[in-house]
Structure formats: C-alpha cells, structure tokens
Amino acid sequence: MGVYGNQLIPREATILTHCNAGALATAGFGTALGVIRTAYNVGKKVHVYVDETRPLLQGARLTAWELLQEGIPVTLIADNMAGYLFKQGKIDLVIVGADRIAANGDVANKIGTYSVAVLAHYHQVPFYVAAPLSTFDLSLATGKQIPIEERDQDEMRKWGEYQLAPQDVPVYNPAFDVTPAKLVTAFITEKGIIKPLFAVGIQNLFSNSEP
C-alpha cells in the first residue's frame, strides 16, 4: 500500500491527515500513515498536518505521537483550523484511512472526514483514501447503507474528570460520517490504485484478486 501510495506524493508535499490510520489503529505499517512513512523513507520532503480529531483526539494522541517517534515533520492543528490552512494554500494533498467502503466508493470514516473532503474538493486538493481490500464491502451498494454508530454523550460533555459542557445538555455524537465517492480522488490499496469510475475499478480489482 505504501509503495503504491508513494507514487501519488510529490517530492515535496504538505499532507493533511485525519484520525489515526497508523500502526496503533491498523497494526503493521499502517494505511494512510504507511503511505506517508514510505514517502519519508525514500527521501521525499513531507510535512504532515494532523488534526486533533474530536471528541476522542485520536489525531492528537496517536497520530502525532507516531510521527514524532519516527522523526517525520508534523504539526498538530485543531479540527476547525483545516479550512484556514486550505485557504492559505498550505495543504497539497489529504490522505485518510477508512472504516468501510461501499461498492460505489462511498467512504465511512471517523467523524469529520466528510468536512475535510469537502474542503479539499473546494480548494482542488487531492483527497486520497488508503485502505486494504478487507475494508471494501461489496454487499453495500452505497454509503447510505453503512450503519453509523452513535457513541456515549459524555464523550462530548467530559474529558476524563473534567466537565467540558453542562451535564444536562443533549448531545449528538456519531462516531463516523460518510464521504461520497465523488469527493475521493483515488483509493490506495495493497493491490493497486483505484481511480474513477470507482464502481468499475473496485469490481475489477476484486475480480483480479480472486484465486
């Protein structure tokens, strides 16, 4: 996956990633972070902006830590700063992982991914999804069929022992959102890169991967 994804990264690139798609979340080399690691290891000059990924801060707690451990240049930002960075022209491309991908290329990933995809599309910045074939669910025609988990309301009201919001305020806390396939530039898999038209490309990749 890293080898294929590296083909999409320029010699110098500033990359935005969301949530954690590294060794801590996916084991091994990672998916989105695996691509970034490969680019860095072959000598490309990459700098990674990591958004914090509210409300559980997987970007701040996990992704930032992984990149620091490997000496990859990294800057942490709050989730709501991403648009400003795009406007300033500081983001060359986006790479995220995925929790589930429908047959048409709609992507379910950590909440906030859709917002980043919309920003990338508006600013004409490539938006790549790195995921193994096991993430694709061909039984789901579109992302509308992907179930979205709603998590405990106290994840928003509290952080550990600290109260962040009134205890009686109602909270809506979906864990994931769905990014439409039309906002995705390409998928990076362990079997190759899938470009639009995704429904055809995904089906062909699975057909070619069968024994």
Please characterize this protein's 3D structure:
By secondary structure, this protein is α/β, with parallel strands linked by helices. The protein is built from eight helices and 13 strands. A seven-stranded mixed beta sheet has the order 3-2-1-4-7-12-13, sandwiched between helices. A four-stranded mixed beta sheet has the order 8-5-6-11, with helices on one face. Strands 9-10 form a two-stranded antiparallel sheet. A hairpin with a 2-residue loop joins strand 12 and strand 13.
| Extended strand count | 13
- H-E string: HEHHEHEHEEEHEEHEEEEEH
Taking the sheet with the most strands, its summary is: 7 strands, mixed
Count the DSSP helices. Answer: 8
Percent strand equals: 15-25%
Distance between the termini: 20 Å
State the helicity in percent bands: 25-40%
Structural class: alpha/beta
Rounded to an integer, what's the Rg over CA atoms?
17 Å
- Low-pLDDT sequence parts: none
The averaged pLDDT comes out at: 94
Instruction: Sum up the overall morphology in one term.
Output: globular
**Largest sheet: spatial strand order:** 3-2-1-4-7-12-13
